[in-house]
């Protein structure tokens, strides 16, 4: 099932894949079915939905895509959009994420997609990873059906995970405690998950799980993809076992968090189009404040507009990047929320908003020590933090 908002004058189509983790064995899929039914079945879905962020039809909230045809594909397959298996003796559940996307695309061709110029496959969290796994397949599907004029592109938000070592190793019991690699290894078997052929060829048989990690699949993709990723992604920290609750953060955790930002920044250095703010958050493109976040003075809608233009221009003449219209935007400051445009943080217990200094002190951040490490006076460091430098 899917939701559609037609915009008859437009030849741009935005297909959005919803996120929401996944389950990888009978036990945790049963739990998910009991506690998060809407992510397992379409039975209780509402008749209409309101689009926000990049799915909004208000120009103020969505400057460059507001009049596109919008399609929202809810996530009920729990397989990171990779499954292609029907219900069997072995499993009580069907996992058909990859097939759902293909069917929706097929049906939309009769509703105007056949004359599209651009199809942007977007998604957040598990939907963002779903974009990386499916964007080339959608392009191939349209080509095979004879629609050669549609440019297929991807926009992956908060789906670029790292397969790093956990801060503290835990046994793989459920989605939250399981190390990312272990969960995906189990999941791909349980779902009969499929990955793109070009990525699969890079790895030995049985190692297809590698293709669920952005930095490994990205170099194999043919379609242009824009990567949006918080440098300190909350879902990544959760699976890495760094839990930022009311207790001050220990020094080991603080170093782990900073290192995570460094590693993530590193994996994005060869990504042509990216937007990576140094914030602690998760998901952005369907949030109504998505226009407020900036990296180096450029907002995300603006960066996406520049990317659109660069793809349009390069089709024409393979020119160098457009002046004053950047598409590779990665924060270089080293701590969570060192970017002053980051979304507001709230104390998880009191719900109170915190400014950067309060947040860092709440994290157990030692201003004296940090100033010493940076070779600064503590007061100077605090000034820089509060002004966001």
Spatial strand arrangement across the major sheet? 1-3-2-4-5-6-8-12
Order of helices and strands: EEHEHEHEHHHEEHHEEEEHEEEHHH
Radius of gyration: 21 Å
Report the top-level CATH class of the largest domain.
Alpha Beta
Provide a compact summary of the structure.
With 389 residues, this protein is an alpha/beta fold. Helix content is 33%, strand content 13%.
Overview of the structural elements:
GO terms for molecular function: palmitoleyl hydrolase activity. The chain is an alpha/beta fold. It has two domains: 3-343, Rossmann fold (3-Layer(aba) Sandwich), CATH 3.40.50; 350-388. It contains twelve helices and 14 strands. The strands form four sheets. The chain has an eight-stranded mixed sheet. Strands 7-9 form a two-stranded parallel sheet. The chain is globular, with a radius of gyration of 21 Å. 43% of the residues are buried. The model has no long low-confidence stretch (mean pLDDT 90).
